[in-house]
Specification:
Two copies of one chain form a homodimer. The longest helix of chain A is centred in the middle third of the chain and has 14 residues. By secondary structure, chain A is α/β, with parallel strands linked by helices. Chain A has eight helices and ten strands. Chain A is globular, with a radius of gyration of 18 Å. The first copy, chain A, has a seven-stranded mixed sheet, with helices on both faces. In chain A, strands 2-3 form a two-stranded antiparallel sheet. At the A-B interface, β8, β9, α7 and α8 of A face β8, β9, α7 and α8 of B.
């Protein structure tokens, strides 16, 4: 089976003076997270969608589900953990109550990236089936520089080899379980990205093609951009 | 002396179906590049501003200067080169006709980053005077991944050490001349970033603090964001 996993553990501290976590802010006629859930629910290869939400917002999310997806039997809600990987782990524990196949796939996605496409999800599923793990990326638009001392540049990597990570990130569920349980507490405290965790344990993470429009709504400016992008996709005038 | 150098060599092929190079597109009541030139002209420490423009757009830029900055004696226009470093070299050749001091400083800036601040320019001047070279950066917001084979991830650098490069990039002019002339043709063909060139020749490039709002207008979406940002700075309602 193929599971969609919507990661909504955050409470949006970087968004400035909005009272709601960013995934609940309205975008067009529905909250950002509802756009995301809908994209996964309508995808022909996704069997079930599990949302991992911060416990404080559990009831709020339940109410949204009731409003937008009443009687949707393949949509589950679980409480997220303290970080990204533990939220994925909580979601997988819930999935395991329903399916225990070694070739089950999970397609994890940020609740604040509403412009994910059917093609990105399909490509993720194909790559995760074939290679076990994949990450969605785009070529970096900015020049990236490293500084280990935060005073001067210690390296500028070759630009054509640099990518910006997006989501979805997808894996065979069995592989995630094996790798996650092999991590020490210290490793889990420092490795916040699932793909980095796989790399640490010696696995190859394949690249799926993202898109510049697949933005993460982190700052107020991103939220404004998202509103414009939605407007133009709905046929409003661009110029 | 302190020189501002506005780099406008590009013709904006990534902007989609706009007929003008992006630096000439209107933003509020004047073209993007005019916002940039104005920021440098009004800065109390900048003695002179030199614009490096693609030769095809030389007359167009001259007309803009005549319109927005008539009789401005400390504003010069030169033809840019085939890449970023050669455009800086052309600008420096022009500067050398007017000043040959070893401690002259050049503050180079993208013509399509209209939200540079007085503070960024001031910080650049301070660092370039003290250390010889600096680059304006912000902490990377996206996870950056590295792939040498473009199939799977070969490295994920530690996030807190990763920065996105912006501009201004500033240097002692004498240092740029020394380093640029020490580069082989092959090196110049592969190293398109001035800071990377300094690093290649063993110099330390210090970090100046940029800001997320100091965006580069590369894609149509950036142009839309810039229009919104200008609107909000001019007191229009954000929400």
């Amino acid at each position: 089976m193929i599971f969609g996993a919507i990661l909504a553990g955050g409470t949006g501290s970087r968004m400035g003076n909005y009272t709601l976590p960013k995934q609940f802010l309205p975008l067009g006629d529905m909250p950002i997270i509802i756009h995301v859930v809908e994209k996964f629910l309508v995808h022909p290869k996704i069997d079930c969608v599990v949302i991992g939400v911060n416990p404080e917002w559990h009831q709020y999310m339940l109410d949204l589900i009731e409003k937008y997806f009443p009687n949707q039997s393949n949509l589950l809600l679980v409480d997220g953990g303290t970080d990204r990987n533990s939220t994925i782990d909580h979601i997988i524990c819930e999935i395991r109550k329903h399916s225990q196949n070694d070739d089950d796939i999970i397609v994890t996605h940020d609740a604040v990236r509403p412009f994910v496409t059917v093609k990105m999800i399909s490509d993720n599923i194909t790559l995760a089936k074939k290679y076990g793990i994949c990450d969605t990326v785009i070529p970096a638009t900015d020049t990236i520089v490293y500084s280990e001392n935060h005073m001067y540049i210690t390296d500028i990597p070759i630009r054509k080899n640099v990518y910006q990570g997006q989501t979805p990130q997808s894996f065979q569920i069995k592989l995630f379980e094996d790798v996650y349980h092999a991590m020490t507490k210290e490793e889990l405290d420092t490795v916040t990205d699932a793909c980095k965790m796989f790399m640490l344990k010696g696995h190859q993470v394949y690249l799926a093609e993202g898109h510049v429009s697949n933005i993460k709504i982190t700052y107020a400016d991103d939220y404004k951009s998202a509103q414009i992008m939605l407007g133009s996709m709905n046929g409003e005038k661009m110029s």
